[in-house]
Amino acid sequence: MGNKSLLLVSVTGFILGLVFTLQSRPTLMEFGAVSWMPSMISISIVREIGPVIIALICAGRIGSSIGAELGSMKVTEQIDAMEVSGTNPFKFLVVTRILAATCMLPILVIIGDFVALIGSAIIENTKGDVSFLLYFNQVFEALEFTDLLPATIKTFFFGFAIGLVGCFKGYNSKKGTAGVGKASNSAVVFTSMLLFVLDFIAVFITDIFYN
Amino acid sequence: MENKAVIEISHLYKSFGTVDVLKDFNLNLFEGENLVLMGKSGSGKSVMIKCLVGLMEVDKGSIKVLGKDISKLKQNELDELRTDIGFLFQGSALYDSMTVRENLEFPLRRHSHNSEKKTEALVKEALDNVGLPDTIDLMPAELSGGMQRRIALSRALILKPKIIIYDEPTTGLDPITAKEIILLMMNIQKKYATSSLIITHDVDCARVISNRMILLLDGKDYAEGSFNDLAKSDDPKIKAFFK
Ligand SMILES: Nc1ncnc2c1ncn2[C@@H]1O[C@H](COP(=O)(O)OP(=O)(O)OP(=O)(O)O)[C@@H](O)[C@H]1O
Ligand SMILES: [Mg+2]
């Protein structure tokens, strides 16, 4: 599930960076604060928008495929077949997938964030005259450890949620092909909602810690 | 020839919500025989064999496999016992993300600590048994339904089980392929001297393969006997099976 997600995340991240910078420019210009662009964009993307958008994309991509895969294994009795051949299907199928999703998401988010910043830098470079070097200098100046750490920690939870819900829905899917569709669909819907709830909790906790 | 019973099911009850599927079902499978279980679609045949291998919990009644009460076994003991049971699923149930080779290696990996050479030899033997040695590196989706069924059969046999359970081995296949599968089953029976429980709707299959038959009706073991005895019966409910 890795490399296709990578492409998806990169494209999304890039466009996010472009659009976000284009949209913010006029407002910042009004206040004569365009030079704040790199720090503003980097903080908002790294802290919040990057993790949430990319987790949502992955819920659609990874969560649904886990749901559909386990769902169809369930309805075609492949899971039963594993069990009668003495393998614990839970360990073999569920644990591995949840682990993979949990480890994968933080990496995808970091890549997505980075590509988004490149997108933003390109706009600043063409519309304004900020060199890439200057742009990224300002980015690293603006970003602090206290931005990166909580943002990265919460992406582990996002990944875990995506894997868990996908597996749960797939593993418990009802008989028939309709059951598989439903499993993958409700995996996405439920995960997306859960991601916002988790994000809220993460922000809440971070707020307590740092203020 | 009254042999030792390898499967003893007595007074089995199983219901889903308000639907009673099995009500006082009894069955014995004796060593070395081919027992055919017939029953209408939805009569609970698959449910019965899922209870038998511990995939479903029973509501009431006892199931003994090779002398062991399966409800009293711990997970690892149950897994151990399952190595003695080969299971051919109704829809073949091949792992569709794995090649034929990996499908066949799967039960081997989990159970025995064979060397790679021995595993390879067992896989080859299993594929030769079903006459499909060239499919080893294909994916299940690249095989026809009949080939999939044969691969599933060879996977069920790879641990040389004492008991084989076939859930509708010929359903969904054309008559010629169905006959091939039946012949394969009979060869395997001869070669490895297994005891078989065969679930089928297929009267021809039952005629050819059965030593003894049990009819499942209304959740009970309604009638028992040889194919000829049952086929001659005057009971209209039994007659309905042989039309
Ligand atoms: N997991 C389940 N939950 C609820 N009901 C079930 C479940 N599995 C089976 N049933 C019900 O039990 C009954 C028997 O099903 P089963 O699959 O054993 O039929 P069958 O005799 O194998 O039929 P077929 O020949 O079509 O395979 C059916 O009415 C089915 O709806
Ligand atoms: Mg069935």
TrEMBL record, chain B:
One of the record's GO molecular function terms: ATP hydrolysis activity
Keyword set for this entry? ATP-binding, Nucleotide-binding, Transport
> What InterPro entries does this protein's entry cite?
AAA+_ATPase, ABC_transporter-like_ATP-bd, ABC_transporter-like_CS, P-loop_NTPase
Reading the lineage from the top rank, the first entry is Bacteria
Report the SMART domains cross-referenced here: AAA
Q: Which residues form the ABC transporter domain?
A: 7-243
Pfam families, per database record: ABC_tran (PF00005)
The record's annotation in PANTHER family points to:
INTERMEMBRANE PHOSPHOLIPID TRANSPORT SYSTEM ATP-BINDING PROTEIN MLAF, PROTEIN TRIGALACTOSYLDIACYLGLYCEROL 3, CHLOROPLASTIC
Q: What is this protein called?
A: ABC transporter ATP-binding protein
Q: Which organism is it from?
A: Salegentibacter salarius
